[in-house]
Amino acid sequence: MNEQQGFSAAGIPTAALVIFLALLGLACEGYALLTQHPSLVALGVAIHVLTAFMAKGFFQVAPNEGQVLQLFGKYHGTVREEGLRWTNPFCTRRRVSLRVRNFESGKLKVNDSDGNPIEIAAVVVWQVIDTAEAVFCVDDYENFVTIQSESALRQMAQNYPYDAHDDGKPALRSHGEVINNHLRDEIQARLDKAGVRVVEARISHLAYAQEIAQAMLQRQQANAIVAARERIVEGAVGMVAMALDRLKSQGVVELDEERRAAMVSNLLVVLCGDRATQPVVNTGTLYGG
User: For residue 70, what are the β-bridge partners?
Assistant: First the structure.
């Protein structure tokens, strides 16, 4: 079922017509009292009944709002024109907001693709674009949006690891744009039948579950230490190689293999150590120590 435009007339001209009919009915009844014509009294009463019936057809449409019309249970269209409107008094009306809305899901506890329990939540920005589908295709479209968004969030989180691996696969913590786009597409696929457009979906909370948070924190710290040490060693080896090459190219000193190894060892200790080293001045010969 798709939205279609419902019948409505401008409210102010119709209101003027209703007021005119009400005055006409009063005039008929007043003239009937003066002339003693029962038929004019009946005409005045009939006009008043018609006026009261027509007055039931007035309704207001606010900006970014739609009024869904039903005539004897059948969908009769949607009115989106702002202001005072008038339609068939037999039609029932239901207000549907077309404004952009958002909500934040609760913190869901799920397992990522590695099987680690995590906590995740998201903010979803959405808007009704088809009032007929929103009202008639689902029972409660607002509750439907909430439940389906959380279901899509749970499904998406199970497809990615929390942390990135060496295989280049996107991860929840490091590939925010990819994850958010996937989440939006997952939610939109579920909400198409409800006439809802997902404007934006973003992860608002992401953390390891409490029972493994401490262990995972230690693992992250260990990974950071290993990565830092690897960078330090890589830089130290490059600096030692550069020092030896310059000593040799500039003819500062000639070292045999044993002394070269000793110098490399000493330089690596200085460059890779956690604490500052204490210098030792050699007052003897190079080979005498």
Answer: 75, 92
Cα angle 227, 228, 232 (rounded to 5 degrees) comes to 120
What is the C-alpha separation between 138 and 258, in angstroms, rounded? 83
Q: Give the containing element (helix H, strand E) for 237.
A: helix 210-249
> Distance (Å, rounded) from C-alpha 195 to C-alpha 137?
8
Question: What is the pTM assigned to this prediction?
Answer: 0.69
Alpha-carbon distance of 84 to 198, in angstroms, equals 30
| Residue pLDDT, tens place only, 94-123 | 999 999 999 999 899 998 888 888 899 999
| Tens digit of each residue's pLDDT (9 = 90 or more) over 20-36 | 998 888 888 777 767 77
Alpha carbons within 13 A on the beta-carbon side of 188: 14
DSSP states along 20-48: HHHHHHHHHHHHHHHHT-HHHHHHHHHHH
Q: If we measure between CA atoms, which residue out of 63, 95, 90, 62 comes closest to residue 78?
A: 95
What single-letter amino acid sits at 134?
Answer: A
Separation of CA 265 from chain center? 56
